[in-house]
Queue: 2 jobs
Job 1
Amino acid sequence: MLLVVGLIFGALLVGLIMYLRSRDIALTWYEWLIGIAGFALLLFTIQNIIGCLAEFESTAAVLFLPITGIPALILLIVAWQLAWRRNKA
Amino acid sequence: MKGLGLAGAGLGAAAASTPVFRDIDEAISAPSADWKRPWWVKERDYEDPTTEIDWSIVQRIDNSTTYCTASPFVAAGYRAGYVVKPGGDVSSASPVVADFMKSFKKTTKDYVNEKNPDWAGDTLRDCALFDSSVALQFGALKQPRNPAGGFRSIPTPEQRGVAKWSATPEENMRMIRAAGRLAGLRDVSCVELNSTTIKNIFSKNRAGKVVNFDSVVDYTEDDSSITYPNSCKWVISFNTQFANHLMRRSPAGPGLAAHKMGYARLGTGAAFLQEFLYGLGYMGFGSLPTIDVPWPILCGVAEKGRMGMNVVSPEYGAQSGVATILTDLPLAPVKPIDAGIVRFCESCGICAEMCPWDSIPKGESSWEPEWEINYPAPGFKGWRVNSNTCNYCTGCQGVCPFNSASHASAHALVRATSAVTPLFNGFFANMEEFMGFGGNKDPEAWWDMGDFTYGIDTTA
């Protein structure tokens, strides 16, 4: 399981870097920081949803979506928007 | 083909790294015989657990006059608050039980219905499950109560023509741990019996016999006293894990079955260890005249939580039972632990809030009992259950946040953080309830929950 997650994460990271280079986009350190924080929170959310379901805790699984899932999306969107607007300018 | 080659290499690597034991000596000395604790479980000094104890106040208890567990109401109304017939009819309860039930603000069913409004009460299969587990622990299915020194049915070293077992105390501790786990026990530890810890042994047992330690060869008993050999200087403390998902159904009948089955296995494991000790050439005395609770907190098995008559383990929460064996096999004592549990209990209080009988103190820990009880348990700073009203429903054990499984990483994060700092404990306790973790789960749902031997989800 961890191997699969690691492979997916690695592939996504490589894909992102290749995409940024192809578009000649450089991210600032804070855009990286916000993006990594958002992605970590997204992974945390997904893992806990799956984990809670394995524990037969369906209520908790659903509640992870708004409690940590939405903040994760917000962080990722903020990182994307910061980079997009800066490079657009 | 490359894939097959890689798979073959993987299997070979896995085989090379898998432990292989050719004999018990290798098993004892292997790292797997160690007691692996999470990194956030810290050690404290001997006789200094997280529960503050003033040993100068602690005295040996006369158990013939002092009830250290629940009141006599337990015997009369063991399932007080439970429906005793399928369908929710309480009219079949005995008058004592019925009166006992009337004295409380709500019944077990009222409490279960708060979160499970469709639950109609214990069904026939729930009652049968509970009663079968009681039969296994106490009744018709239980093996005959073994003598104090065990059945002693297996050959001794002398009978085998070999010398008595001899090893270092550390090796012996690992050996006992390995043997105990084979018998279904989980954490196996040891306290040295000395002038301080002997205060946990009753001065008189329930029958009024004086409990002595003297220079005798073996246990002796007469009309007025029981005597253990002075050579028995080590108390083995151990626990067994309860059916975790089932216990969350407490105080409904099926939840209680988890408790009973756990203690039935605890008794079997204890009897096994006594025989094992005998086969090595040593003595092992079970059913000690003692309160079981102090021993596991003195040797790292658990900490003393808010709920009164059990302990809370970092690994199993409140979903475990404990017992002890006194032995003359030299063992390496284990230090108490600090996993942040007592500190968490100060902020949490979920067990006290859930108790249908309001028997658990809701305030801060204290050196004094909150109510007038038969045994005020002087000498420690903590919480004392109201033994006049607690009827062993085990609902508190089912709701403890430390019962959380380990699939969701949030639990590990909470435990590790609360072990390091109490700053977020209140927030964590609130989130435990908000997220719907904990106990008072739908009793009916357990029957469809899965394929766990002994009801224990070991993946959790």
Note: Chain A has three helices and no strands.
Job 2
Amino acid sequence: MSNSSRPDPCADELLAVRCQLGERDAFDALIARWHEPIWRYLRTLCDSDDAAADLAQDTWLRVLRGLPALRDAGRFRAWLFGIARRAAMDRLRARYAQALEPEASLEDLAAPEPDEPLESDLAALRVHLDTLPLRDRETLALFYLRELGIDEIATLLNVPAGTVKSRLFRARQMLRDRFNPGE
Amino acid sequence: MNVRENSLHDIRQLSRGELSLEARLGYVALLLFSSAMTVVIVSLWLTEPFLPARTQVAFGAMSMIGLSWLAFSLWVLSTRRPLFARDRVIAGRMAVAFTALFLAGAGAAVWVSNSAAAYGALITGGAMLLAALVVWSRARRRFEQLSARRAALSAG
């Protein structure tokens, strides 16, 4: 699992600095560059495209308002994903804080089961990813899909680097078990 | 368009609204005018002796209105429409020009009326101009730092 384009920290920082300067065309470039990675990350944290779209909009609103205060543009990538994560966590907290219907159960709040047959490895991966615990799923997505380093993920999630490694190991193990249930 | 493409389109629309320079500078102007208005009203209020109760209440109310607009514009500029580096430089210039004008007006009032209220506005106007110069200077320094960083990253 890896992105088609390798991240370029200098290019990311240059774009962030141009935005902080107030160059309006730099914002268009920023959104074009980061919309897809942010979308994919948020999609792993929620259960529908519509929910991911809402979160993406919330995330970008926070980014546009927070950019002038960003002290170190060199950490833009980790900062950006940190904002996306907080937006997702805020939404989840609000969702779980709502009073449940008397006849509802905890299963209602879990990711929905797919109702169409799996047709490709990618579809299978998406389904199996959705069944992982949120923390492990998120760590896996940040490491493989966003290509953040262990230390960056640890800072973003506010956990020790050892915890990040444990979650990655556990998540890989669970995915392996789901893809090969007989072994 | 699917949901993802719609999302990109919506975010682009959102950014255009959020990044409006005119809106930002409008709130800067609101901040400057509400500050000046509040200073004038409070100066008059504090320096006029023997005001009847209803006039005191009216001055109090107008002061609160001025302070409310000041607080509102500060809140918008810090949370909803924060200023980017170039915007800060422009806002700094606006602040210096406006407070210099205000100071000149207060000076003229002192020369014409020699009243305590005019002196109050003059002293406060001087403090406001000083603050505006500090804000402008910091904005320019930040803009130069970012510009230097951009040049270094573009060259490298």
Note: The interface with chain B takes residues 10, 13-14, 17-24, 27-28, 31, 35-36, 39, 49-50, 52-53, 56-57, 60-61, 64-69, 73 of chain A (CB under 8 Å).
